[in-house]
Amino acid sequence: MKVAMVDPSLFTGRYDDSLCAAMAGAGAEVTLLGRPMRATDAIVPQGYGYAPRFFRRSESLRERLGEGRAFRLLKAAEYGATCALGSLEGLADAEVVHMQWLPLAPADALLLRRLKGRTVLVHTVHNADAYHADAGVQGRGYRALLDRFDALVVHGETTRAALLAQGVAAERIHVTPHPPMRLATAGAAELAAVPDAKAPRLLFFGTIRPYKGVDLLVEACLRLWQDGLDFELALAGKPFMDVAPLVGRIAAAGHGDRLLTDFGFLPEERLDAHMTKADVLVFPYRHIDSSGAFLSALHHGKAMVTSSAGMFAALPEGVAERAPVGNVPALAQALSRALESPAVRQAMGARARAYGEDMGNWKDMALATIDIYRRVAAARA
Fold it and tell me: Are 132 and 287 in contact (CB under 8 A)?
């Protein structure tokens, strides 16, 4: 079976790589279509092909232009032109086109219109609210795009229920649980680049966006520091919001020496080093369906503190300390429990690692995904 896996901006490169490699191992002929790879990408295709079909012009100018408004406008224009007029080679001739992400709904509509009826169209709905509250024009019209697909893949009942509430027919929704992932492993150089902790360290990592609740985390930490608790906070990842006020609040409160920041698009090895050096990993999200960051961290066996949003609400008891969404006092209490002692953190981490080991694997997900393709193709025929 010839499959075109599409993630134009490589929003979830580690996920794409894991699934494509497993599907290739199961006998599918898979090509991942994305943008030109960056130095921070860690994808090394194993058994599948990779084609940099999107954003080739804008990516070539990225370092010169920076990532401000001009770069974003160029990307949008280029993507719109590609969707409307670009070659369909590798797409229209595939038996299945599986869209992982739809980066700009108005442009995606043009591409899907050109492909409709020529191949099986599948889309993974990673989050029912595709880009959360900060979507803007990027997600405008996303819901209408769902009706253009032959099948929708989701990773849990939270997303399935949300789609049903939006009027999506149940028979078009297929649930395939999201397996844990492993980022590229940090080497000696990456580990040396991340300072050792002088006190128990909390880590928030990945892209920094409003819906992820980093402001709630900072507020909770300020309360705990004021109460005399000794710990560090590390923030590692690319901000897509103004983080200066948060950093300023910590400094103004006299705790700047307890804050470690590593802002920017970080290589997987660097993120892995941060997880290795941390004691507690924190996910205070306001809303989420399934968290790739959480699933990429389980094998580290670190204590976890989460909100009760999305997949976190369904975690078995003991896998993580949870706090109600948006509740800063409750988040502070959950953090305090995780910081209580090394023995408590060790026990919490062991439960997190065991949960990850029981969650299934990418081979199972690949086989389930290929089975979805076959069933949908048979129904169309």
Answer: yes
